[in-house]
Design goal:
5-stranded parallel beta sheet; 33% helix; 23% strand; alpha/beta
């Protein structure tokens, strides 16, 4: 079972990502344990408690600790998590290479078959 974190301050997007993950799991015989955080600070505080995440979907614009700063803190403790930025701020894509982001998804995210 893969451990997935969704770090997103807008509940509409975090719920949408959860639905997409569930749909993908059903269609492909996979299973995920999904954790949702509404800001980067809560995510970082929980990182040690959950034993790490295989995949992290990270928003960039969030209160308290933005996604780029959160990702830098994540990389200080976990270099292996697959980090995917989910944002409406395409201009931040270049900054993602600083934290070894695997990919970027631009909002609104759609499920493709």
């Amino acid at each position: 079972m893969l451990s997935v974190a969704i770090v997103e301050d807008d509940s509409r997007y975090s719920e949408l990502l959860c639905r997409y993950l569930n749909r993908f799991a059903e269609e492909n015989g996979e299973s995920f344990k999904t954790y949702v955080f509404d800001d980067g600070l809560k995510f970082i505080m929980a990182c040690g408690n959950n034993g790490g995440y295989n995949i992290v979907f990270m928003d960039i614009e969030m209160p308290n600790l933005d996604g780029l700063k959160t990702s830098r803190k994540l990389r200080a403790v976990d270099k292996n998590a697959s980090l995917i930025f989910v944002t409406n701020m395409a201009k931040h894509a270049v900054s993602g290479y600083e934290v070894d982001a695997l990919d970027f998804m631009i909002k609104p995210v759609e499920y493709f078959n």
